[in-house]
Amino acid sequence: MKWSGRRSSENFEDRRGMSSGGKTIVGGGIIGIIILLLNTFGGENVQMLTPILEQISGGNGAPTEQRDLTPAEIEESKFIEAILVDTEDVWAKIFQENNMQYERPNLVLFTDSYVTGCGSATSASGPFYCPADQKVYMDLAFFEELKTKFGAQGGDFATAYVIAHEIGHHVQTLLGTSTKMRQMQEGKSQAEANKLSVALELQADFYAGVWTHYNQKMNNFLEEGDIDEALSAAHAVGDDAIQAKIQGHIVPESFTHGTSAQRKAWFMKGYKSGDINQGDTFAEIR
Fold first, then answer.
1. Residue 80 and residue 12: Cα distance in Å, rounded?
2. Model confidence over 241-274: pLDDT tens digits?
3. What is the torsion angle, in degrees rounded to the nearest 10, for the CA atoms of residue 203, residue 206, residue 207 and residue 213?
4. What is one cellular component GO term in this UniProt entry (predicted)?
């Protein structure tokens, strides 16, 4: 994808290289698997999990030291910031077209572990959006895991899709969708609550597609193979694909993010339509 030449963003924080003075959420074993299953691309569940996992892992600490970034890491930083800038421009335009004002979230890159407004996070958590501080958190090591362990194609647009998905959760927070979803979950069975969570995640995929549509019109940034990279990533993080890979069988009632087919379909619907009014994923479960 074509990304150079973008302006800088005041909402980008590169905290990579910082070491933590205390313990953080364990990234391996059964805890890591639980985090990965529940939180891949999904910030809504991080707040619920954090108190329990912090008790298990013994608390967390604030970053105490920072090393210099390598030239490769600096280039990664420029790329991530360029994607963030594109989300800022696109969503500001979409909100303006709908007589609303877009509030720009921050995006934080970290290494190994970091203390967030939703508690501690590690690369095992997957990229996530924290509504408590309205920030997206990412350890770029996740994308290597996505390729080596879950078979994603990789590539720069796969990363862009992930960022756009997380920004989609921010849009849901601004529009009140996330709050409404949590209210709808009250009193529901676990299976019914999970369906609502799936709808929220699929809508974030749809918003990622809408962003791609607008950004292509505004910046002509797509190159051959970019959409395939996004679809490969969406496939890899489907609940069915993750469960089949990790536990060898699929339990549909436990899905919280949607199947590979659903995630790809909703991304493509957003990309082809570019119309935020066509993203009522909750209609499918009514």
1. 9
2. 989 988 889 999 999 999 999 999 999 999 999 9
3. -170
4. membrane
